[in-house]
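Re: L-rhamnitol structure - here you go.
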Amino acid sequence: MKTRDLERAYALAQQCYAEAGVDTEAALKKLSGVSVSMHCWQGDDVGGFENAGGSLSDGLAVTGNYPGKARSPQELRADYEKAVSLIPGKHRFNLHASYAEMGGKRADRDALEVEHFGNWIAWAKSLKIGMDFNQTYFSHPKVDRGLTLTHPNKAIRSFWIRHGICCRMIGASIGKALGKGCLTNLWIPDGMKDTPADRRGPRERLAESLDEIFAVKIEPKYNVDSVEPKLFGIGAESYTPGSHEFYVGYAVSRKVLLTLDSGHYHPTEGIADKISSVLTFLPEIALHVSRGVRWDSDHVVTLSDDLQAIGQEIVWGGYLDRIRIGLDYFDASINRIAAWVIGTRNLLKALLLALLAPYPQMKKLEAEGDYTSRLALMEESKTMPFRAVWDQHCLRCGVPDGSGWLAEVKRYENEVLAKR
Ligand code: RNT
Ligand code: ZN
């Protein structure tokens, strides 16, 4: 739309919201402060670069063969830059250990050093963005029978414990180098396809392994740690030692963060309602916003009821400064840059929708017992002129409004991706 029309639409919308008791300027100011940790792995189908040609395995699967995937760190960085140029706000970059650049110094996962991520750090610095990090417990020969930190063999556990420790140190170096604290996340694929005879042993070994990993003291201003539960996975349909209860207990007792991934629960079990429960006992949590379709399929995040509920809990609960919001999905059946743009813009839209609801009034009505009016306001707020406010945000941030970004993605596809 033309700038003049965007401005006119916004002025009307602002008035409409003001009549409902909502200050759109205050909402936009809050939204501008949100930084989403955008996952590197949407850009190359979770491939990583430590071994060129290595394939994804151990509990994760990407489907689709859309042309143009990033084949090198350089291409991935360029693609990410293209994506963020189409998303309002300043966002973070979330890297996995398997994206190490070995250069002349090959190292296995248990001997990774910050040098292997030097190019990533220099690049993030040049963009003035923060970075987060992930330990990679998959796509590696030492994931034996699908097991890592819970493996009965001590040598295998020790290998992965060393991996965990070196990743935390890399996280701290990233945080120090960028002057913006890093979050290092831990997820393991361990589990059982069929009914286990021993549910206790793996959990006790996992707690022990984690304690060894987290025993190394790291300054929280450089790096904080998080653990990510999952109820089931591919090849782990019957049991995962790192279940929700396991990690809630672990995070609360060991004072680490908990990562709630919206694809990791039973299909009708949302994570929105878990947020205020766990934040009653934890100072901070992290989110992997994803979209499961029938299983933890990691579809691109859409503006679903689930996503809106997450946005509402973050905003209405007053948790914007206690939640490290990240994304986690990977779709190789569509343009990967569009996937980043659609998912991240949707997450921001969900937050803006929540910010634009008259939630202080709704809470007041609720406290007074007027549930009728609470429902009425909640429902009316769904059809307010949201788009005009969103477009205004895009305009101010210098990114395309509406679907204007798509033409640029198509141009990039023709000029850059199609030549790969
Ligand atoms: C797996 C977890 C994990 C991964 C990424 C690649 O089910 O969600 O977070 O998706 O680390
Ligand atoms: Zn995840």
